[in-house]
């Protein structure tokens, strides 16, 4: 009797290893779906890393959708196709609902004051060295002195406005005279 039991055990082991070694697609699919949670965690980590580089909340929403939809449904034991579908639906829902609100909130606290080169456009200044062949020096209203170019013939003391910054050279022009309502209305 012990011999029969031993034979059954060896035979059952042979059958089990044959199914695995034979490469039954169903057996392999079950094996892979058991470890699908690792794929979801890796995907979430990749999305978070990409989000840290881009800073636009798109990949953060995809990470949240993958975490909640994909990993959450995996932990509940739902099929792989439900996990993928739920992750995609939640990611799209978060991208189109939560992301715009986050972007508006983020930009609400931003300082609207232009800085660096953007702050120089339209800034006034005074010519400190006559322009020769279109090149001269201008002291801007912020106190900086710039090498300047202009198509106008400018003399020391002329008032100018910055129109463009090209590297370390400010391109300037004569200011456009401001018109007032009294200039526009006809006099009787």
What's the topology here?
Layout: H1 2-21, H2 25-34, H3 36-54, H4 58-75, H5 80-108, E1 124-132, E2 135-140, E3 145-149, E4 159-166, E5 169-173, H6 181-184
Parallel strand pairs: 3-5
Antiparallel strand pairs: 1-2, 1-4, 2-3, 4-5
Helix pairs in contact: 3-4, 4-5
Structure notes:
This protein is an alpha+beta fold. It has helices spanning 2-21, 25-34, 36-54, 58-75, 80-108, 181-184; strands at 124-132, 135-140, 145-149, 159-166, 169-173. It has two domains: 2-107, no CATH class; 116-173, Beta Barrel (OB fold (Dihydrolipoamide Acetyltransferase, E2P)). Helix content is 53%, strand content 18%. Strand 1 and strand 2 (135-140) form a beta hairpin. It is elongated, with a radius of gyration of 36 Å. The chain starts with a helix and ends with a helix. This is Membrane protein implicated in regulation of membrane protease activity.
Defining key terms:
188 residues; 5 strands; 2 domains; disordered N terminus; 6 helices; five-stranded mixed barrel; OB fold (Dihydrolipoamide Acetyltransferase, E2P)
């Amino acid at each position: 009797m012990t011999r029969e039991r031993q034979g059954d055990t060896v035979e059952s082991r042979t059958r089990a290893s044959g199914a695995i070694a034979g490469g039954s697609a169903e057996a392999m699919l079950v094996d892979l779906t058991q470890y699908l949670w690792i794929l979801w965690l890796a995907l979430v980590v990749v999305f978070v890393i990409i989000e840290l580089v881009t800073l636009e909340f798109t990949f953060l929403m995809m990470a949240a959708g993958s975490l909640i939809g994909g990993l959450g449904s995996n932990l509940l034991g739902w099929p792989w196709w439900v996990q993928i579908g739920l992750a995609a639906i939640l990611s799209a829902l978060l991208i189109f609902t939560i992301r715009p609100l986050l972007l508006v909130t983020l930009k609400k606290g931003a300082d609207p004051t232009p800085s660096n080169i953007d702050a120089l456009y339209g800034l006034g200044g005074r010519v400190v060295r006559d322009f020769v062949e279109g090149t001269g020096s201008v002291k801007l209203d912020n106190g900086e002195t710039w090498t300047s170019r202009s198509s106008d013939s400018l003399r020391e003391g002329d008032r100018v406005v910055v129109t463009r910054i090209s590297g370390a050279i400010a391109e300037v022009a004569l200011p456009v005279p401001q018109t007032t309502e009294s200039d526009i209305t006809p006099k009787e």
